[in-house]
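fyi for ur records
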Amino acid sequence: MMTPFQKEITQGLPEHLPAKRSVPGDVNRAPKRKDILSAKEKKLALENALRYFPAEWHEALATEFLEELKEFGRIYMYRFKPSYDMHASRLKTIRAKRQGRRPSC
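which gave:
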């Protein structure tokens, strides 16, 4: 039996375009990048982001992703942010075959 987390993580893209989410104000994120992309590079960034989604979603998502690019200097795709909490695992909890430092080459 799969947990709700496992079901959500293995779902992939939803069948329908999810509702737009507000940008969380309390999240510590990377500083805004300088606006150094040319118009051609911004268009390429949008095309690269949209290629993962069905064509019928492109009009709505292009506007949204362009807003993110202008506001944050990156395309975060907040609409598709998972609903579960994300956190880094402690290194000690990650299984490994070796312990300690790797020898230098």
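Helices lie at 4-10, 39-50, 58-72. thats all i got for now
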